[in-house]
Design a protein that fits this description.
This protein has 178 residues and is mainly alpha-helical. The chain contains eight helices and two strands. α6 (119-141) crosses α8 (159-176). The model is unreliable at 1-9 (pLDDT under 50).
Length: 178
Amino acid sequence: MTAAASRRSSSAHSLPVQAAIVTAGVVAMAAASRVAFDLGPVPITLQTYALFVLAGLFGGRLGLFIVVTWLAAAALGLPVLAGGAGGWKAVIGHTAGFLAGMAAAAWVCGQGAAKAKGWVSLTALFIAGHLIVLAVGWAGLASFMAPKAAFESGILPLLPGAAVKSLAAALTVRLFAR
């Protein structure tokens, strides 16, 4: 089964199955948040890896719903963000742009995964998704510090990991969508 076929079949799932997918997705996003390395104003995590795997397997609609539910859980105080953070301050703080970018990237990459023709195009799609996350994140971070400093300390250190996570997510989606 291709990623496109997996995505099509996921939209035909019953409401209880979709709820289970969203719940499992939120747990996966929370677990990916626990792997965090603080190297600057924005931690390096596995959040985008999990995001792109989920969006690639379940499509844009469920991918977006997973991210929105994960962010709602964080806003309610559950420790589901990087370093076990939760609460409104964590959601609207200096990483708010990155979190908002993840919602946009979930939709875009979930929709695009249905059209991807292999791991190379899926990797390119997930790199584009990372660019969405990083661009929105940079805009948000730049509201807390100078734009140049936000780019140098909050974006540049994330670029190598973004490339590796994009490739890893594409390979994971291709493996599980067979």
